[in-house]
Amino acid sequence: MKTAVIVLYKVKVNDSKTIQSLSKSLLTHKDLNNKIEFIIYDNSPEKQEIDPNLFGDCKLIYVHDERNEGISTAYNYALTVANNTKSKWLLLLDHDTNLTNDYLDMIIDYNEADRHVAAIVPTIYSSGKKISPVFSNTFKPLQDEQPGVGVQSDPVMAINSGSLIKVDFLNKISGFNREFPLDYLDHWLFYEVYKSGYFVNVLNVELEHDLSVMDYNNVSFTRYRSILDSEYTFYKKYKKELYPAYKKQLVKRLLKQFILVKNKKIALYTLKQILLS
After folding, report:
1. Can you give the pLDDT at residue 247?
2. Which is nearest to 22 in space by CA: 77, 96, 79, 131?
3. Best CA proximity match to 95, nearest among 187, 24, 9, 218
4. Quick count: other Cβ atoms within 10 Å of Cβ 273?
5. CA distance readout (Å), 31 to 22, 50, 55
6. Average pLDDT, the chain
7. Considering just the CA atoms, what is the radius of gyration of the chain in Å?
8. Which range, 26-30, 112-116, 132-136, has the best average confidence (pLDDT)?
9. Distance CA 190, CA 152 (A)
10. I need a labelling partner for 204 at 20 to 30 A (CA). Which of 129, 214, 217, 263 fits?
11. Three-class SS state of 8
């Protein structure tokens, strides 16, 4: 059994790219009720009406949480459900990932024999550019060499959406870290994978994902502040060996932001973080 959680925020169920593509792909699959269960965790202000047969015969749980405590709370809820139903794997999904039949085939039937593999991830593209997975020992992962297909012995990081995580591993690390309610939770998660002596397996499958935070001019100040706060915590507290280089990287970012980013509050917040570090 596998448990899948789809986290929504201010998105109608029928407008979610993930749910649209998932519903379409599930039409080609039969007898899945004993293989996978779904959770829609809705952080939106208003509760939605959900078709209980949205995913065919598969069990579906809808949770509305107007507190909007981010994805870590949603994932921890899903982990509790996975433990209760004795699922071996937890599938993490955002609302804006286009899933394919090939991907779903691999995920549903996946049964990793290597006990040292804690995470299964696809290759993710955004606007035609590969964004995940990447090696996690550099600040320019998209410009350097990138992981291929197969088990990765060198530390990699992947975005949350599309990642299949072993439940036993999640239990060993006490679930998802609430220090990262939204941003950098994926960095922390894959850091813990390798810190704990596990590996990541990259599937031979590609997905498209809408990553809106790639352009600072399209990111609100509130969201940027959340990203920077979480980023600082990650390098200061966890990825400590990169912290000195991270501080230098912030200075370079500041210069670019003053020149290229229209909202100067973003650059000023970067400056504030530099002065406090």
Report:
1. 94
2. 96
3. 9
4. 18
5. 15, 21, 12
6. 92
7. 19
8. 132-136
9. 12
10. 214
11. strand
Instruction: Tell me if 186 sits within 8 A of 159, measured CB to CB.
Output: yes
Confidence class for position 177, pLDDT limits 50, 70, 90 = very high
Average pLDDT over residues 151-174: 97
Beta-carbon neighbour count of residue 213 at 10 Å?
13
User: 43-93, pLDDT tens digit by residue?
Assistant: 999 999 999 889 988 999 999 999 999 999 999 999 999 999 999 999 999
Q: Which residues touch 187 (CB under 8 Å, ≥6 apart)? A: 136, 157, 180, 234, 239
Residues of the chain with CATH 3.90.550.10: 2-213
- Mean pLDDT confidence for 145-161: 94
SS3 186: helix
Helix, strand, coil share (%) of the chain residues, nearest 5:
40, 20, 40
Q: Nearest 5 degrees, angle CA 240-CA 215-CA 144? A: 50
Confidence of residue 216 (pLDDT cuts 50, 70, 90): confident
What residue type is 108 in one-letter code?
I
CA distance 90 to 138: 28
- Please give the CATH topology (third level) of the domain spanning 2-213: Spore Coat Polysaccharide Biosynthesis Protein SpsA; Chain A (3.90.550)
Instruction: State the Cα angle at 203 between 202 and 209, rounded to 5°.
Output: 90
Q: Give the Cα separation of 108 and 129 in Å (integer).
A: 26
